[in-house]
Amino acid sequence: MAKVQDRYLVVDPWRIVEDGFHPERSRVSESLFSLSNEHMGARGHFEEEYSGDTLIGCYLNGIYEEHYLKEPTTYKGISNRIAFMVNTVNWLYAHIELGGEALDLKRSQFSEFRRELDFRTGQVIREFTWTTKAGQRLKVAFSRFLSMKTKELGFQRISLTPLNFTAAIDVTLGLDFSVPHETYRQNFWKCPRSDAQADRWAIIGTSTGIKHKLFAGSRIMSAASIDGTPLKNAKFAGSRLTLNLVEGKEQHLDRVSVLYTTRDPKASVVDTWTRGVEMLDSLDQADYQSALQDNVDYWQDFWKKADISIDGDPEAQQGIRFCIFQMQQTYRGAVDGSNIGAKGLTGEAYNGNAFWDTETYCLPYYLFSNPKAARALIDFRLKTLPQAMERAKSLDCKGACYPIATTDGTESCTLWQHASLQFQPTTAVAYAIWHYVGVTGDVDFLYTEGVELLIPICRFLASRGDWSPRTHKFGYYAVMGPDEFQMMVNNNCYTNYMAKRTFTYATKVLADMDKAAPARKSELFKRLDCTAEEIAAWQNMADNMAIPVDPETGIFEQHEGFFDLPHLDVDAIPVTDFPLYHNWSYDRIYRNDMIKQPDVLMFMFLYNQSFSPAEKKANYDYYEPRCIHESSLSPSLHSIFAAELGLKDEAFNFFNFATRIDLDNYNRNTAEGIHITSIAAAWMNVVYGYGGMRSDGDMLVFNPTIPDRWKSYSFGIAYRDSIIRVDVSQESARLKVTEGAPIQALVRGRVREINEEGLTL
């Protein structure tokens, strides 16, 4: 693997720490120090004005705009519209002047810079000592956090300690809607109403296209008397405050901000303003320390249940806790109708869109920590079923085709080779239903929402595929699988295999409903005009699905003709060529057998128990040397396979890559935002990789192993109504039910009971 670390953060088990400012990595740090509570997120940009390289980004889940290509396509089925998560209001805005000099770390003299993000509090603290041109030395500290208790609230503290002077200082705080959306280099907000007083201010923004309404309000919480002058302009509301500083005495300037929206473009300005002001008025007793304690309590309770502890590897410990922390920040089922963008709320890359990663990489984390949130992710697909059905029609197909990239359920990818050829989002939804029901046992969901999705999904798959006149096999032509370095191929093995399993599952579910829910099935068939003949046709397609495989080696051919492609030594590619999309001509990546991310190995992971150890080894040995890991989703999956196959060094190297992909900026693109879905895969890296857990069979499977350099590790999962604790050391492994009833599991090849007494291996 040609990629190398770019490490500059201090290693700490519960924090990320930047000791000394690294301006050349300013955007990387802004991504890493991002905060979110699912409702809203803020990059780790400076509060004060900074004339260096920065991306001021404050985003709200579900608040988006749209962009149409200047030249509309003349071809049917190619999307011309991009929906994107839009930059909103900078509620952290601060401008600080001392003796007529403005604080700007690009131009100002400063020392002792340090910032940290604490996973136990969700608080970011940044501090340094500013020396003005007049020789005044001021210790400055900025603190911020987003409330995990009340999702609309964000808190900010500015602490000022004069070290060698007594004087007044001017601090302007405000709400700034004028920040441009960097990707499109324009601002998407108009502000029809605002109000500013000395100690509180409010403003409402209406997005120019979709017409989302966003109320932003702030109020000062500091006890000290502060002189303030209200400030307003077209897209700004705030106040210029004067603080009298006394040498050696620290002063805090605290404020709480409200960001309120219904996420309904039809909501009126008046109603949104009224509700926002009510929330702001209710914060009379708001206090920074009390609100922070609420966050501490939230995270303390969370870590008791969700922590993964690693003894003997500080880098891995920091990395996995960072991953878990960011997953919980990004999504927890708190916002109705939300999904998980590829970058979460940490940057504008991928336009904030969700991909098939949600159902394949992210869902397992929630299945075993927060099943209600897992179901909510599937509910998003049900709510956007009408858009998926329209998408299928645009591709001259029946049923429902889920978009490769989406914010609002519509296709938001204008690259036809992806949007029109990739169907893994559609089969991923079916897989998510199968996986969710298998883990939770929620058959009520299956026979209500589940079948409402499975039938139109199968209809699309049936209409998009076709029969070979030579082999008389059913398959898919002119497609692109998960490996996006091969396009317009025939019978991509992943696409075909996932379709086969989708057909088989749907037909079984519908057959089971004859006994379990006959009235529901009758109503469903009548309403959807579904017949037994149609279901039988799906099963016939499954039974005769083309699955390209070499019978002698057991290696699945990624697609027809893949074995004939010229070979490329991926380890010979210079590290300076990454990311390849930025440095290689587009067609160059299609000329060889280099793959972007696992394709065959992906479906072998999703349905792991359906393949023999020999099949897994043969395919891993063939495809791993061909994978360049240009997708952040790739390393974890390879680590899981390597751990299962006993390849300890490979498993660990891939684990380290996956777990610290952002902390060490392996792909040189962390500046664009954190790889949220890769972070979810890092959780699987421990639980599925070293824990050896599998959840795709009739019962849970555990085959725990441990890297040589670790002393021990432990994790917990929620399964049905039980909590299972797994502790592994170099000497032994122990599985124990800490809450709930005993469970049956396949443990190292034997069916065993895991109960409150524990099972020692």
Question: Which structural traits does this protein have?
Answer:
761 residues; alpha+beta; Beta-galactosidase, Chain A, domain 5; five-stranded antiparallel beta sheet; 19 helices
Kindly describe this structure.
- Helix 9 packs antiparallel against helix 10 and helix 18 packs antiparallel against helix 19.
- The chain has a domain of 271 residues: Glycoside hydrolase, family 65, N-terminal domain (Beta-galactosidase, Chain A, domain 5), CATH 2.70.98.
- The chain is built from 19 helices and 30 strands.
- The longest helix has 24 residues.
- It is an alpha+beta fold.
Reconstruct the topology from this structure.
Layout: E1 10-11, E2 15-19, H1 26-32, E3 35-36, E4 40-42, E5 58-60, E6 64-68, E7 81-85, E8 94-98, E9 101-102, E10 109-118, E11 123-131, E12 137-146, E13 153-162, E14 167-176, E15 189-196, E16 200-207, E17 213-220, E18 227-233, E19 236-245, E20 251-260, H2 269-281, H3 288-306, E21 309-311, H4 314-330, H5 357-367, H6 371-383, H7 385-394, H8 416-419, H9 424-440, H10 443-464, E22 466-467, E23 474-475, H11 493-516, H12 518-528, H13 532-543, H14 580-583, H15 600-606, H16 613-623, H17 634-644, H18 648-659, H19 676-690, E24 700-702, E25 712-719, E26 722-729, E27 733-739, E28 743-747, E29 750-754, E30 759-760
Parallel strand pairs: 24-28
Antiparallel strand pairs: 1-2, 2-10, 3-4, 4-5, 6-7, 8-9, 8-14, 10-11, 11-12, 12-13, 13-20, 14-19, 15-16, 16-17, 17-20, 18-19, 21-25, 22-23, 25-26, 26-27, 27-30, 28-29
